[in-house]
Specification:
YojJ-like (1; 281 residues; 2 domains
Amino acid sequence: MAMDFNFIDRLHGLISTVGLLDYIDILIVTILFYQIYQQIHDTRAITLVKGLMIIVLIKLICDGIHLHAMSWFLEKSVNWLFVALPILFQPELRRALEHLGQGHFLVKSASLLKREDAEAAVGEIVKTAKKLSQTKTGALMVIERTMKLNDISSTGIHIDGIISSEFLLNVFIVNTPLHDGAIIIRGNRLISAACVLPLTENHRLSTELGTRHRAALGLSEQCDALIVVVSEETGTISVAENGRMVRHLDGPTLSAKIRPAFVAEEGYSWKKFLSKWGGLK
C-alpha cells in the first residue's frame, strides 16, 4: 500500500508542475500532428509511418530485453529510412510545404461552395462526364481544391465562365482548339482550358492507361486536385487523387467522389481516424 500512495503522491506532484503554457504547448503539438495526419492519411506516406512506428516499437522491446545486436541494426535502419524519406516521398512533402506556404495548413479551402451551389456544380460535371462517356469523347477535368493551380492554368487559354453541362460539352468538341488538354475548374467556374498537365513518372502503370490517365496521375501526385478522366478508347470514367486512380465510375459513384472538392466534409471523427489507421472497412 505504501508503494501505491507513493505513486499517487509522485503523480500529483508531477501534475502540479504543469502550467498553462504547458497545456497550450501540448494543444499546439496535438493540432500539428492531427493536421499532418490529415495531409497524409490517404497517401502512400501513411504506410511508411506505420512501418516506422512498428520498427521503433520493436527496437524498444529489444532494448528492454537487452538484444543489443538487433537493437543496433534497427537503429541504423531507422536512420537510413529518414535519409531516404525526402527522395521516396517527394510529391507528398512538396504538397505539404505548398499547403503551408499558401496558408491552407490549418484552414479550409476558400473556394468551397454553399451546399446548393456545390450540388449544382457536381451535377453539371457528372452530367457532362456521362455524355462524354456515351460518345467516347476524351476529356480531362481538373477540380482545384486548396492548392491553387495558376501555373497549370497559365499553360492553357483563360476563360473564366460559370460551369454548365452545355458549356463543358462545347469545350470538348473534337477537333476544336480547346479539345486537347485539360480544363481547370475553381469553385463553380471554369477558369482555363487546353492546359498541359505533367505526366506521371510511375513506370509500373498498366498499359491500358493512355496519356490522359498518365497526365491525371502526374498532376494528382503533385497537388491535392481531383482529376476526372473520360477515356477516348473505352468511354470509361475515372478519377485521379493523391497519385491513385479509381476507374469504371458511374454517375452516383462519380458524384460521391468529387463532392468533397466543392463542399466541406463532415467532421473527422475519432472512430473514422482509428478505422483508417487499423485498415478496417
